[in-house]
Structures are given as structure tokens and as C-alpha cells.
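TICKET: design request
STATUS: open
ATTACHED STRUCTURE:
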């Protein structure tokens, strides 16, 4: 009986130690094909750094001149809610130059706003949990970006909105938009499709955030697949552990 009790106590002791080690970040993922064991702390640090690199790189690429305008992956098109405006006026041969200028300036607003995006996005990754960390690590391409997108889009859009509004004012986007939409609304009796009141602030905000997430995913995937993109020891260790499973 004493032996049984002692054996049971030993098992409980071992389990307790393992639990404490996991909480402390001392144990981790050895048996899932990784040759190098990773601690919880290393995984979380690596993923946060990967997202930080992706955020800074994507923000830098998107905010340069033509970062949106010349990139077919993220270029802001004429607002879909107001596409009738473009089509009608184009068919009538009206405002051709203004429409082209408006579309370019639309993207300039997104580019300008993106320059201020990094701190907002970086603040959103501070509280990543250990469970989230391992799910993201094993989640494949875009998993970290998708995590950020799922968890934080609403808050990011709220925080990004005033940045976008300031950018719209800075590049004088409404100066090009108002004459176009005013002309279209004045001709409602001809086209009969109703007047338009597109919310440019919301449109640019949503599209700019979407574009940044697209660029983030590309940057994240570089780190996952290209050892050269792993610019620190922790990135090399965390994402290098995935290389050994291929």
C-alpha cells in the first residue's frame, strides 16, 4: 500500500512540475517534429517579432509614393457604391481628367495614412497568448496575419479612421470628389439611379487596412519560407524549427 501511495505521489509531483514548467515557458513542442525544442517564451517572442517585421515592412512599402497606386494587389479602385458615377460620366465623356485624378488621389490618401499605421498595428499584438502562439506557428502561411486580422480589425479600423481622415484632408481628396459627385447628382433626372453620398473616409480606411493586411501576409510568408528574411536569432530559431519538419 505504501508503495502505491508513493508511486501516486511521484506521478502527481511530476505532473505538477510539468505544469509549472509550461507556465514558466520552460517546456515546449519537442515531439511535433522539431529537432530543436522551443520554449513558450521563444515562440511568442518569435511570432511577435515576425509580425513586427511584417508590419514595419508592409507599412513602409505601402506608404511610399505609388505604394498603393502602382500595386495591383492593393490599389484602391473607384468606390463600388459609386461606380455608377464613374460609368455614367465616362459614357458622357465628362470629367475624364478629374476621375483619373480622383482615383490617383484616393490611393495617395491610403499611402499617406499607411505611414502612420505601424504603431497602431504593433500595439495590437502585445497580448498574444501561448495557445494562440502555437496555433499560429503551426497554422501555415498567413496564419499570424489572419490572427491579427480576426482579433483586431474592428479596433484597428476605429484607431485608423482619424489617421485616414487627416490624410484625405492633406491630399485634398474631396476637392476632386465633390465636383464629380455633384455633377452626377445634378443629372439624376437623366440617369435615374438616385443620388450618391459615398463615405470616402470609411472607404479609404477599410481599403487601406485591407491593403496593409495583404502586404503583411506577403511579408510574414517570406519569413516562413525564406531563411534570408529571418533577420534575428529568435526568428531563425522559431521559424527554422519548421524547416526541419519539411
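STATUS: resolved
RESOLUTION: sequence designed for all positions
ATTACHED SEQUENCE:
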Amino acid at each position: 500500500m505504501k508503495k502505491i501511495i508513493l508511486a501516486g505521489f511521484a506521478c502527481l509531483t511530476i505532473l505538477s512540475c510539468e505544469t509549472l514548467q509550461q507556465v514558466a515557458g520552460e517546456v515546449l513542442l519537442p515531439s511535433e517534429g522539431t529537432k530543436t525544442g522551443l520554449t513558450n517564451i521563444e515562440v511568442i517572442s518569435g511570432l511577435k517579432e515576425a509580425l513586427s517585421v511584417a508590419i514595419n515592412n508592409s507599412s513602409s512599402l505601402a506608404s511610399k509614393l505609388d505604394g498603393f497606386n502602382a500595386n495591383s494587389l492593393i490599389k484602391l479602385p473607384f468606390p463600388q457604391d459609386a461606380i455608377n458615377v464613374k460609368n455614367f460620366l465616362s459614357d458622357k465623356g465628362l470629367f475624364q481628367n478629374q476621375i483619373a485624378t480622383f482615383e490617383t488621389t484616393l490611393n495617395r490618401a491610403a499611402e499617406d495614412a499607411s505611414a502612420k499605421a505601424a504603431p497602431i498595428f504593433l500595439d495590437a499584438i502585445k497580448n498574444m497568448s501561448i495557445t494562440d502562439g502555437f496555433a499560429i506557428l503551426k497554422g501555415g502561411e498567413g496564419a499570424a496575419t489572419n490572427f491579427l486580422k480576426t482579433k483586431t480589425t474592428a479596433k484597428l479600423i476605429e484607431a485608423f479612421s482619424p489617421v485616414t481622415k487627416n490624410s484625405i484632408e492633406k491630399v485634398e481628396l474631396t476637392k476632386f470628389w465633390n465636383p464629380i459627385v455633384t455633377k452626377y447628382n445634378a443629372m439624376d433626372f437623366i440617369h435615374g439611379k438616385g443620388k450618391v453620398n459615398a463615405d470616402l473616409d470609411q472607404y479609404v480606411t477599410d481599403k487601406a487596412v485591407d491593403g496593409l493586411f495583404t502586404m503583411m501576409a506577403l511579408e510574414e510568408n517570406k519569413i516562413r519560407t525564406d531563411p534570408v528574411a529571418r533577420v534575428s536569432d529568435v526568428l531563425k530559431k522559431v521559424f527554422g524549427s519548421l524547416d526541419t519538419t519539411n
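CLOSING REMARK: The longest helix spans residues 143-170. The radius of gyration is 25 Å.
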